[in-house]
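debug: dumping io for the single-chain case to check the tokenizer round-trip. Nothing else runs in this session.
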Amino acid sequence: MKASRWRMKLFTGNANPALAEEIANYLGIPVGNAQVTRFSDGEINCGIHESVRGVDVFVVQPTCPPVNENLMELLVMIDAFRRASASRINAVIPYYGYGRQDRKTRARDPITAKLVANLIVEAGAQRVVAVDLHANQIQGFFDIPVDHLPGVPTIAEYFRTKGLTDNAVVLSPDVGGVTRARDLAAKLGVPIAIIDKRRPAPNVSEVMNVIGDVQGKSVIIIDDIIDTAGTICTAAEVMLDKGAKEVYGCCTHPVFSGPALDRLAKAPFQEIVITNTIPTAEDKRLPNMTVLSIAPLVGEAILRIHEDLSVSKLFEA
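debug: decoded output
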């Protein structure tokens, strides 16, 4: 089903224009004519070069690194569309930056995920479309509708096409990711295993115990984010130590900060599967890395939102 109503328009900031182009192609519409530029002092300027009065506007802008720059671009664009009399402004945020700061873990900690939600709403967004939020409760941080799209179906379909459903097990690298691992395991028809770990400091993890049978199995390690890659690389090494036949790594959001690529290159992965919620430059793609597109998922969700149809029907199986 293709978009036919001209009253819908899709725009993009500078965070991931390639994904916006793919989504627009899926919808059968062009990317809107807008530019986000910088003044000489670094301040952000947004120019919208076509009418959006009375239009259902979708702004594709993940708040990936550089997080603050991309977040500010999103806010400025939303404000511009609001002042240009758009009928509805939908913030399409494939990756929600600051999503890991979703609760207080120590005294006097900020809850930055909520602060960012407030900023987006205050700027004028009337709906948010996000993919694989780090914590489901972030949906409740917004006082507007949030359509939360899971990345697991896209990843599961890829592994099904590879025939990786026999003698496989899905591994959650921590207890917090069990729901995601269980979802992927159910879609592949395989069991799950869990790593019980503790994190003595941010971006530092220590494996404590493995729950489940991985001996002689093809292990698929799934997480929502690969940031510095310490967690998933340590998990891969532990799996081979525990007798796994081979190890696959996958995530929805390839943040890849700091030593991530070096660690992934040295880790014993048969294949690393990621999506394009965050752009991964060609020179940062490892030989064993596969990038899946979430454009059909996001495009179909946008179409259903515009047509006032159910988005949850996409994931009922």
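debug: round-trip ok. The first helix runs from residue 17 to 27.
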